[in-house]
Amino acid sequence: MSYSLGVDLGTTFVAAATASANRATMFTLGDRDVAIPAAVYLREDGALVTGEAAVLRAVSDPDRVGREFKRRLGNPTPVTLGGQSFAVTALLGALLRDVLVRVTATEGAGPERVVLTHPANWGPFRRALFEEVGAYAGLESPPMVTEPEAAGAHYAASRLLAEGQTVGVYDLGGGTFDATVLRKRAGGVDILGTPEGIERLGGVDFDEAVLSFVDHAADGALGELDPRDVRAAAALARLRADCVLAKEALSVDTETVVPVFLPGRHFEVRISRAEFEDLIRAQIESTVGALARTLASAGVSPGQLSAVLLVGGSSRIPLVARMVSAELGRPIVVDTHPKYAVALGAATLADEAASRAAPLANALGGPTVINLASGIPPQRVAQREQAAIPVPGTPATPPIRRPEPVVKPPSVAPPPPPPRFPPPINGHGGAGSTPAGSRSPVPPALSPTVIAPKSPPVPPAPPQRPADGGVGRGKESKSKVLVVAAGVLMGILVLVVAVALGYYYVGPVFRETPQPGPASSAFPGPEVPIPALGTAIPVGKTPAFVAISPNGRQAYVANTEPQKVTVVDTAVNQVTATLDIPDGPPRFLAFAPDGRKLYVTLFNDQRTIHAIDVIDTRSNTVIATVQQPARPFLPAVTADGKRLFVPNHDVAAVSVIDTGTNAVISKIAVAPNPHAVVFSPDGRLAYTANHESNLVSVIDVAALKVVATIPVGVSPHAVEVNPRLPVAYAVNYDGNTVSVIDTSANRVTATIPVGRNPRDISWAPDGRFAYVVNEGSNTVSVIDVGTRKVTATIPTGAFPVSIAVQPSAEQAYISNLNGGTLTVLELSG
User: What's the pTM value of the predicted model, to 2 decimals?
Assistant: First the structure.
């Protein structure tokens, strides 16, 4: 009997459902669970292993496993496993191919139609890339629907949603969030309004919250692990898995224990449901806000909803239902297995389209073409007879245990065309199968070479306002178009060079591939020479400084005139809270390494207030105030979180504060007018930019004394140390330059011209680029560390004074003092 297939390629799990005769059921993909992990492992022999087998092997070789790569679809930087680079589309294609092999082997024939799902907020660029995933798995233009549409179809089919009724879909999965409003009509469902999504918010972020809780309880023991130690890497991989289990346990229990097995140290960390909810409450609030905005865009009031459908595995967290219900006051519907609703709905839609014509069949297109035996590129499928299309009724082979699906990489340099769906492996049924017990040919190769997708459209930079207040036009606009075009070409060139030099991605940071000979100085990463401008965020009057929380989820902004600190949710780039600073105005901000405390410097000369407020970021309340002898400028916290170094501008000294007692324990004399303090990556040295002295002071952190001074340009305002190279950059406010400092020799080796009055600087997390805000020219200069040249000059708002970069290197935020906004830079272009 013919059947249809729905596949949900999620961020953390892959699920599939089959449907026939108007009945959809989940297909068991794994040996232990219905769904399989969205993980791919590169074996030593070059074969790719997916699903459960990949996760099991990853414990001993975490650098050879790829997870959560769906989040990176559209990012030109490849995913590298064991030193080999793969496009995200290729890895997703491997997962989808595995699903099709297993389903075909079990059912005895291929499906008549396959429907794939994707997040509702994906634009044309990523949808086009997602079509490539189908080509890798041998599907010819498979129909695609949004995940909320699929979930709504499942809900309508299983709960008899009446025609004209409206539901809100709250879809919180492993890596993304979608909010959509659906209305039932004859023959299907319609999307109302504008779906809203949060790109990087889901179960994996909640896993990280539990991991951070464990690390804090262990006094930062995880940060002390050597990433090069195989035992440490394996221990951390096991701990991450245990944190996932703890998160899931807290959905059914009020307390659980996380076992921690580190090299030479074993202990347990107890976490309650209330503590876990405190960790994730802000993120859940942002999802509820997104759902409310989606309702508003659809012109639907909460009272007009029949129900709110909770979809996705993370929606099982009890806090979700409570907060959604409290906000909307409507019935909450949670499926027995909410993470399977999307796959079941996709299968339902596929079955409906296969069984009847318009309107749904027209929306989903014609029957799916599946090539089971050929490795020909998709464009040639139409030129051949469809002999490879499975024929309903093909005899099934005897059921056997499924082997690990493997995909061999090519042994030749030129990348082959995208491979088609391979023949079944080891005697599994389907067209082109071999007799039971014999061995099938090796599946076509998945190319590990980077597949360059089409570049996404780059938003045009807003025109810079001339001195007369008019809007620039003409040559300026043409030059920007040329700059953007050049940037795309340069980005491709940098990508090719980075891959050729052998870097690979292992979680949040990039590490060098072990190679003989001297280490390369190139840097991989998602940043490109010309970032794109995002939408500016209104944050209130006079935003004087912006700082990003260590987890990258919030941006805190010091607003001087209203004496407030504004909190921005970086997932949706909207203000979520404001904090009153009555003794302000607030000037500079610095986070503790664990993100639980924020230090706010204050100086009010009229009231002779020079102090630091300590804010608990969990409650967003001031918990302590530390008096200072003079105006405190930009401070920094040591890596262990135990000391705060504060530059006191008017007394040529740096105060050292014990963060446990909030008492000043030492004062270090430096050159006059220190503006900022920053630490070296190893934490042994601190650097201060001394504005009036044209010097950078170097402090021995252990000895609490200055060990060197470095002459730089005129009026250094800030200094930042490269996270990977022995290099520091000092921005010279009155010199319109950046001084390049060799920190191993404590001397300036180059001077880079930038815009007028450079005020602040921040490095990309991988150290490839530095971003300098130029207060006098309302621009950001992007500097390539390799060439020591400005690769782009980007307009900002009025009077930019500070910049902060997310740890994920996705976005940077610039505070515009006279514009009342944050300029957002999309660092991946």
Answer: 0.51
